[in-house]
Amino acid sequence: MISSLHNDKVKLVRALVRRRTRRRERRFIVEGVRLIAEIVRFGIQPDFVLHTEKAMRNLDALPLLNRLSQQGVPCHLVSDEIMDACADTVTPPGLLSVVPFPDVSVPPRSTWTLVIDNVRTPGNLGTILRTAAAAGVDLVLLSPGTVDLYNPKVVRGGAGAHFLVPVLSPTWQEIGGRLQGVDVWLTSAQGDLPYTVVNWARPLALIIGGEARGASQTAIALAKGSVTIPMERGVESLNAAVAAGVLLFEIARQRRATGRVL
Prior knowledge:
- This protein is of the alpha/beta class.
- The protein has 2 domains: 8-100, CATH 3.30.1330.30; 112-257, SPOUT methyltransferase, trefoil knot domain (Alpha/beta knot, 3-Layer(aba) Sandwich).
- Helix content is 37%, strand content 18%.
- It contains 11 helices and 11 strands.
- The strands form 2 sheets. It has a 7-stranded parallel β-sheet.
- Helix 8 links the parallel strand 6 and strand 7.
- Helix 7 runs parallel beside helix 8 (152-158) and helix 7 (122-135) packs parallel to helix 11.
- The longest helix has 18 residues, at 240-257.
- The radius of gyration is 20 Å and the shape is elongated.
- The termini are far apart.
- The mean pLDDT is 92.
């Protein structure tokens, strides 16, 4: 049993809480039985797993640990204190893994791009990514200033979306280049058009702005127009993740109705 904070694997896990370390190592942390099982289903093999004795008594965790061991994944028993020191959650699930960055194929030309700009709340970004994967978005671009893709709370909120939809974190110049030749729409509480009147079957990019300040001026300059979600009087705006869900599934509905391949 690993019971020392000086163990190399424990030190790596604790270091991966920092974005700089994640980028250098090209690895990140995935916690919990359900999410680890999901990535295994996608064919992703963790570098190693840390687990507690309690996890071995979990009827869902034990078969997963056995499967990982049979696949050659090192599974290390750790003390509860070590798990507490390594886990990001308040109540650790007793099972975490270190996983390589996903290698999701990026389409050479996207006909449906989602640009996420200045979203700082990790849970919101994770939920948006999960929704984008479910709706069938081709490509997600994270603007400079958006919370890190591999923040542990983003990973939990994404529920496996990191391995389903290609996500890039480019510069604004690179974002502008990728959006050439498509209709670029900005989501805004004060938008020009209701989202339901737009022809979403055309090649497009949708910009979702941050929770506090909305989209940046750079993002606004890229847009050909803005759309809004009509709301009752007295409600100023929607949560960014909720707005993304409403818009993305309207886009999906229109594209299916017109025979567009998502």
